[in-house]
Amino acid sequence: MNKDRYDIEKYLRGELSAEEMHALEKRALNDPFLADALEGAAQISPNDFTKDVQDLHKTFAKSRPKPFWNFSTRIAAAIALLVASGFIIWQLI
Amino acid sequence: MLSSRPHAEMDDLELLKNYKNSGEAEWAGILYSRYTSLVYGVCLKYLKNREEAKDAVMQLFEKLLATLKNHEITNFKGWLYVTARNFCLMQLRSNKGKYKEELSPLLMEKAYEAHLQDGDELEANLGKLEKCIEELVNEQKTCVQLFFLQQKCYQEITALTGFELKKVKSYIQNGKRNLKICMERNE
User: Fold this and answer.
1) CB-neighbour burial class of residue B138 (10 A; exposed 0-12, middle 13-18, buried 19+)
2) Nearest to A29 by CA among B118, B48, B182, B47
3) Core-most of A38, A61, B110, B187, by most CB within 10 Å?
4) Contact A60 B32 (CB under 8 A)
């Protein structure tokens, strides 16, 4: 969840209260995903971690491949085909 | 955007369904973005290299786009964890030129769910738990009491006991494991 993202970053920066830190640590004990992520994230500086996550989000937004043959491109292609074949037939006649 | 309902309100399975039905990668992107920091953290843990870990997060997304379409997934988070970890482990192995069979994410997903329930069961049996805590070796007992009964965080426990952070973590993890064994024995 998004909540995890901010909690991990705040935890690494030491911006959480002791109570919040305990809650996250307890959650990590029962959640190997969170435990692994915290362990990995602690290997680099909190600033680097935040920056990398932001960069990754940006790349997703940019490189998210859009399906080419969606509904409107299909319609456009059909119309183009009709016009082209109409034109060719008209030329032949 | 894609729908009238804000996607922040949608749960994972709803986003997953939208992606499957429409084939629009954007849905998968929204879903994956929720877990970017977790996945990146996991990749850092295994690959121990910022660039390689970032690459892995991107490659995993491409892999996801293909896999999500034809897999029935009931617990996305659990499935993603197993898939991400396998991916990094496979990469480590291929870096070393070794090959081992990939663990089935679907099988592991069940193990993950079972793991998540451990915590609730432990808390339901507090009385028995206290008896078992008494049986732990000293360091584990101290750390487990501070963490579970007095709700102290790791940092506070290091300050109170003088143990290193790593030790505190392992005393709590091992203590918790021993507690579970003790509780099961006394059932």
Assistant:
1) exposed
2) B118
3) A38
4) yes
- Residue whose C-alpha is closest to residue B44's, from A45, A60, A11, A13: A45
Residue in A22, A38, A67 nearest the CB of B151: A22
Which of A29, A44, A66 is opposite residue B176, by nearest beta carbon? A29
Q: How far apart are CA B167 and CA B173, in angstroms?
A: 10
Interface contact B42, partner A, CB < 8 A: yes
pTM of the predicted structure, to 2 decimals: 0.70
Q: Which residues 81-120 in chain B show a CB within 8 A of chain A?
A: 81, 85, 112, 115-116, 118-119
ipTM associated with this complex:
0.72
On chain B, the residues whose CB falls within 8 A of the CB of A19 are: 151, 153
